[in-house]
Amino acid sequence: MATTRDGTTDGNRTDGASESAADTARQQLDRAAAHLEVDPGIIERLKHPTQVHRVSIPLRRDDGSLEVFTGYRAQHDDVRGPYKGGLRYHPAVSEDECVGLAMWMTWKCAVMDLPFGGAKGGVVVDPKDLSEGERERLTRRFAEELRDYVGPTRDIPAPDMGTDAQTMAWFMDAYSMQEGETIPGVVTGKPTVLGGSYGRDAAPGRSVAIVTRETVEDRGDDLADATIAVQGFGSVGANAARLLDEWGADVVAVSDVDGAIYDPDGLDPQVLLTHHEEPGAVSGYEDADALSNDDLLTLDVDVLVPAAVGNVLTADNAPDVRADLIVEGANGPTTAAADAIFDDRGIDVVPDILANAGGVTVSYFEWLQHVNRRQWTVAEVHEELESTMLSAWRDVRREVRDRDVSWREAAYVVALSRIADAKTARGLWP
Ligand SMILES: NC(=O)C1=CN([C@@H]2O[C@H](COP(=O)(O)OP(=O)(O)OC[C@H]3O[C@@H](n4cnc5c(N)ncnc54)[C@H](OP(=O)(O)O)[C@@H]3O)[C@@H](O)[C@H]2O)C=CC1
Ligand SMILES: O=C(O)CCC(=O)C(=O)O
After folding, report:
1. Which of 47, 84, 108, 120 is catalytic?
2. Ligand 2 centroid to residue 83 C-alpha, Å
3. Using one digit for the tens of pLDDT, what is the confidence trace for 277-335?
4. Distance CA 80, CA 411 (A)
5. CA–CA separation, 207 and 13 (whole Å)
6. Residue 120: active-site member
7. Kind and range of the H or E run holding 73
8. How many helices (H) and strands (E) does the chain have?
9. What share of the chain is helix, strand, coil (3-state, %, to 5)?
10. Which ligand 2 atom lies nearest to the CA of residue 359?
11. Of 11, 313, 388, 415, which alpha carbon lies 20 to 30 A from 24's?
12. What pLDDT does 4 receive?
């Protein structure tokens, strides 16, 4: 059983809630399927991953001792293209969490109309407890253990929580050494010197900001008048907060794993540093009020952006949430029970599979750049991302209006229709 950084010991949870990521994903699938005429066999099939690989990763620690870590790669569905999804290093990683996250990747790639399926993996480890050398050795051994299951046309990992471009470079190098040739296409989210795309690091946060801007304006409000609370000031949260601030919104609260800071007059996310930039900088910040991560979620703000871990919005705190709009930066921050409460309370929740999809979208751009052997400028990446996000956001909004359903159901309707059509066209799918 894993011990999480916040002290809980439930192997499937990051917050001790009773709904696992796979439970949530299956309940969301059932709710959305009710709006579509899809063969029930296809829906049943989509409740199960195609394969889950569990590997043991021996690591020689710097002090000479040997520790064995557990890693997973869940491959959910590949009807539309190779499996695609990140690798997470976090103490609460579990098989069940990887399965739920892999399911969300399948819908995310379909809602963005990308030619990929869904996968997710990770290692049960707190990367902050490892030296850089230990992280490199762990990643190389993980890549060796996954060698038979990944590849540019099979399954393409990318960064997620606790991993970054450097992790992808080590993974790509270890895989390439085993294969006997350089194979950059085995991962995306690489450093740009190895064929990575400009703008990939900031892309999930950028898409959260774009989706927030569009949805706020669609509700008839002005982004410049909006107050925003962001849970998690890491890759997704900090990039979203900085862009929203640049576009005129007031980011009044942000947090890291140790707690939140709040200033009703607005923080300056441009000067606040992430843990990666300076460890402890957010919770150690002194010119704002200190709050708990739980308190941040119930602040009286216009927009709440949960951008840290899963299952933070539950049946327990959903009745106390005061935001009018929730935009999911993290994967799976809202349990199905909380979703139903938000529905009843008229609080719109723009789902993860649309909001944070900028990451996998720029991963797709990286793949295109690799195939064409031409690197795009950051301006080209931003322009393409903006237009791809707007097109997906409009597809989903059309379903929200036409079917009078929630944003999550609408996004699932778009995704599921495309997946079901692909399964039907390929034929004999069972
Ligand atoms: N990176 C990517 O490409 C993508 C990530 N996502 C999702 O976004 C979420 C965040 O990922 P990412 O930004 O990459 O991760 P990072 O590790 O860069 O940042 C995570 C942030 O959340 C904080 N945090 C960690 N644990 C907790 C906790 N228990 N309670 C509150 N805050 C916590 C961290 O604090 P501290 O700084 O102290 O560590 C950090 O500020 C995840 O759900 C991930 O799956 C979605 C799409 C793409
Ligand atoms: O870029 C990718 O392939 C995957 C990103 C990811 O893991 C996610 O969107 O949750």
Report:
1. 120
2. 11
3. 888 889 889 899 999 999 999 999 999 999 999 999 999 999 999 999 999 999 999 99
4. 17
5. 26
6. yes
7. strand 66-77
8. 13, 12
9. 45, 15, 40
10. 1
11. 388
12. 31
332 Cβ partners below 8 Å, 6+ apart?
21, 24, 25, 100, 101, 104, 310, 311, 352
Which residues have a Cβ under 8 Å from the Cβ of 301 and sit 6 or more positions away?
A: 227, 228, 229, 252, 253, 322, 323
The model carries a pTM of: 0.94
What's the CA gap between 124 and 122, in Å, rounded? Answer: 7
Residue with tokens 């399965």: 99
Identify which ligand lies nearest to the alpha carbon of 109.
2
- The predicted pLDDT at position 276 comes to 82
Dihedral sign from CA coordinates of 307, 4, 162, 238: positive
Asked if 122 and 84 touch (Cβ cutoff 8 Å), the reply is no
Q: Say if CB 113 and CB 34 are below 8 A apart.
A: no
Question: Is the CB of residue 24 less than 8 Å from the CB of residue 311?
Answer: yes
Asked if residue 98 lies in contact with residue 120, where contact means CB atoms within 8 angstroms, the answer is yes
pLDDT band at 428 (very low <50, low <70, confident <90, very high): low
Would the CB of 240 count as within 6 Å of ligand 1? no
Question: Is residue 297 lining ligand 1, measured as CB closer than 6 Å?
Answer: no
Show the domains of the chain with their CATH numbers: 46-184 (3.40.50.10860), 203-355 (3.40.50.720)
In angstroms, what CA-CA distances link 340 with 31, 86, 320, 369? Answer: 10, 28, 14, 41
d(CA 392, CA 400): 13
The Å distance, Cα 307 to ligand 1 centre, comes to 6
Which stretches within 248-377 are classed as H helix? 293-297, 336-345, 352-355, 358-372
